[in-house]
Design a protein that fits this description.
223 residues; alpha/beta; eight-stranded mixed sheet; 6 helices
């Protein structure tokens, strides 16, 4: 079990964050960026899992700018609520909280490199963190806005994971990213959107396992 803390962004906004620390000497630190469903039980379990694998993890509650402590379930009604929240907040403001989380991680764990890991909404923000902020490495899972911002240049190593059966991100979007950045490792799995999440209908254990192994190897190399 992790702990909840408060972090302040550069514009003065204070937001909550879930922190899970490794009990052994850490390999690095990770800013874990939520899906469109908030820092819910699944995201906390992901944080706990990476902590067990030797990373200190901080997961900022990005929805605090719209509604504090908003945690959503994986149904159509809650998805609509999450979409409304991020539309109200905007990606630029959310990125300020990601930046503040990176700064907090660096100040808290000053001997470690800080990477970013994002899922869904977090995958898109992870890409923007790579191109606009200064993490040491970024891993993006099925970020729907990456193709739209594919012309931006990352300042750190980036790895991406997508599902071939993703109803939200089509093959043309993945191809746009490949063409813009052929140098980046980009993996496509025989799965749908959200295949990493064991609370979603598209959860695909083999794909989730392989993507996580690749992510751990990637962070092991760059963090």
């Amino acid at each position: 079990m992790g702990t909840k803390i408060k972090v302040t962004a550069e514009d003065g906004h204070q937001f909550g964050a879930y922190v899970a620390e490794s009990t052994s000497p850490a390999h690095g630190a990770i800013v874990l960026i939520q899906e469109i469903f908030g820092v819910n039980s699944h995201i906390r379990s992901v944080a706990d899992g990476y902590a067990k694998d030797g990373f200190h993890v901080i997961a900022p509650a990005l929805f605090d700018r719209a509604e504090r402590d908003l945690e959503l379930s994986y149904n159509a009604e809650d998805m609509k609520k999450g979409m409304g929240a991020i539309s109200q907040i905007g990606l630029d403001a959310a990125l300020k909280d990601v930046a503040a989380s990176i700064c907090h991680a660096r100040s808290q764990w000053s001997d470690l490199k800080v990477g970013v890991l994002g899922f869904c909404l977090g995958g898109s923000l992870g890409w923007l963190a790579a191109t606009r902020l200064d993490p040491a490495a970024v891993v993006c899972y099925y970020g729907g806005q990456i193709a739209k911002n594919a012309t931006e240049t990352p300042h750190c190593p980036v790895m991406m994971h997508f599902g071939a059966k993703d109803a939200h991100i089509g093959p043309e979007q993945i191809e746009t990213i490949r063409k813009a950045h052929p140098e980046l490792p980009l993996f496509v799995y025989d799965a749908g959107h959200g295949f990493n999440c064991d609370q979603r209908k598209d959860f695909d254990p083999p794909s989730a396992k392989l993507a996580r192994e690749r992510t751990l190897e990637f962070f092991g190399k760059y963090l």
